[in-house]
Design brief:
The protein has about 60 residues and is of the alpha+beta class. The protein contains 2 helices and 4 strands; from the N terminus they run βαββαβ. It has a 4-stranded antiparallel sheet with strand order 2-3-1-4, covered by helices on one side. The model has no long low-confidence stretch (mean pLDDT about 95).
């Protein structure tokens, strides 16, 4: 799964990903960070919901 993370919520994103044991595969820097992550499907779904709420919808998620 990939996502676009604004720089102001990068710390929140990294902390939550580390806490949940999701693997961070790549980071591309641009106007936002494009981050590719990997993990069990059910765990990813939970992290997407949590981070979407915690970032107030500022993280854009994309299936790859």
């Amino acid at each position: 799964m990939a996502c676009y993370v604004p720089y102001p919520v990068e710390g929140l994103f990294r902390n939550r990903i580390n806490q949940e044991g999701i693997t961070l595969l790549t980071i591309e820097r641009g106007m936002d960070l494009r981050i590719l992550v990997q993990g069990p499907k059910d765990q990813l779904a939970q992290v997407v919901t949590t981070l979407t709420n915690e970032s107030q919808g500022r993280i854009e998620w994309v299936e790859v």
